[in-house]
Amino acid sequence: MGSIFGLKGVFSIQGPRSIYVYSLFIGLLSGFGAYGFNWALTWTESFTFGNLMGYNPGIPSGDMHFHSIGNVGSISPFWILFLPAIGGLLVGIITSFFCMEAQGGGTDSLIYSFHFKEGKIQAKVPFYKALATILTLGSGGSGGKEGPTAQIGAGFGSSLAGFLGAGARARRTLMLAGTAGGLGAIFRAPLGGAITAVEMVYQEDIESDSLVPCILSSVTAYLTYTSIAGSGSIFSVQEYSLNDYRHIPLYIVLGLLCYVVGFFFVKVYHFVQDVFSKLPLPNFLKPAFGGLIVGCIALLFPEVLGSGFGLIQRMINGEVLESTSFGFSGPFFLLAVALFKVFSTSVTVGSGSSGGLLGPSFAIGGMLGAFVGAMAQTLFPELNIIIFPFLLVGMGSFFAGVARAPIAGMVMVCDMIGSYELLPPLMIVSVIAVVLSHKFSIYRNQIKNRFLSPSHHWDMNQDIMDRIRITDHFSEFRKYAMVSEHVSLTELQTNAPGIQASDFILVGPEEEYKGIVSLRKNRILPEFEEDLKNLITCGEIVQDVPSVNRNDTLGKALQILLEYDVDKLAIVEDGKCLGYLRYIDLFNAYQNEVKNKQRKSV
């Protein structure tokens, strides 16, 4: 439903510049949303971990602004065992009776929306996703907080696109921009958030059309978030650079280890998903059962509770991690934490609780890197190994392998530590992990590349469209939906049903082309038609849409239709509008061209 004075037309998306402006706005909203979510989650964790479970998982340097865990009592086996199940039960009730889309990791559902739902996300999803994740992670579930923040931002983008009446292409872009804003804010990673958003939707490609909007949104969200929570990266790291090239073989070993454990993680996670989907239990009880399993694991290894980012910060600070339950430490304890984190994350998210997979991937990879570094300290003391660089490289490389996102994994870690000094070893290990992991991905809805995605079904044959000239298939053009710029908007609305059109070509007295008026974007409500009759002319609300001539190609015509979200395009020669072409006209010409080529090839 349009606004009274055509405000929707004023604020409608009319090209790339409009997308850029709205990306900034979405980034602003995403930054505030991420801050509110992180505040609520950290406050919840301070109560449940500190007062109930008696376990201090640590806190990343970037989250020190929030209310952190204060006085921690003694370990409570009762709460460690049963609290994840209680949280799972509450999440199961939410996802079964209020919002089914709030279950699981979140990122996979965003990818599915991008490819198969034209970027549409229900407005209620971000709220319920945030609530479900707070309950999951606050009760000790093993997951990440990037899922809800990405969905909060993506929900803002999708809802704004729907309000503006944007087309599918613009909606997908704004959805990814919101995703980038959520990631950029919660991880304090302005560039990493943008790269992750455009890379995660494909296995071997990136959504390059959305890169600039994602950067604008991510940077804006990051600035908004840090203006409230304070500047700085999420992890506080001392300066380091790779000066001893004898360490490189150790990084290669880390890359191989990331591949092996990454393969194991993907298989276990997908297996758990399939088992719980067939489990003969009511859906609202499945997350509770998964939480009980996580509680059993946590009795032995409380270190698997939560996102794991606190443990990473403790190790970066030089602390030697020691088992809370058994009192042992060393390289194999770190490896055990990584492997048990694989199981706890798979059961938490795979059973239907709400939590991201990106955060746990960083935690698992970090423990693997710490394991390699600790082993190297023991076996090769002469190399003067420092553990935390291996930990950080393992974080990015493990995620790059399981998510098929090599650039995102590298840049995200560099952003999270506020330094690019570790980029060389990150590149080495990430490439090894990604090359070896080319046949699997943690995200089931990822598509191999743009050409196989329904969102780009025309791109595959764009070269054919670019070779076909308009004059090759059209000698005359339609004129039914051509109107004078002096026609009033009320008159156009009255006559539109008889013409069976929603977009109209606007011409001047000499039939010179003026632009396009879309009743989908500009409409006077029936109750105001009498009061505003003849007050608004079409020339006052015209949209400036480029025209084409008969020697232009179908590819150029289609690009303009998609970019400006109109359903017809003016054909202009010598300053005079000859008529217009519609979507269906372009598609018919394309089909005829393909059929002619097929006949000639027989």
TrEMBL record:
GO terms for cellular component: chloride channel complex. It holds the Pfam family Voltage_CLC. Keywords: CBS domain, Chloride, Chloride channel, Ion channel, Ion transport, Membrane, Transmembrane, Transmembrane helix, Transport. InterPro entries: CBS_dom, CBS_dom_sf, Cl-channel_core, ClC, ClC-type_chloride_channel. PROSITE patterns: CBS. The chain crosses the membrane at residues 20-41, 78-100, 174-198, 210-236, 248-269, 289-312, 324-343, 355-376, 383-402, 422-442. GO terms for molecular function: chloride channel activity. It is a multi-pass membrane protein. Residues 541-596 form the CBS domain. It is found in: Membrane. It comes from the Bacteria. This is Chloride channel protein. It comes from Leptospira kanakyensis.
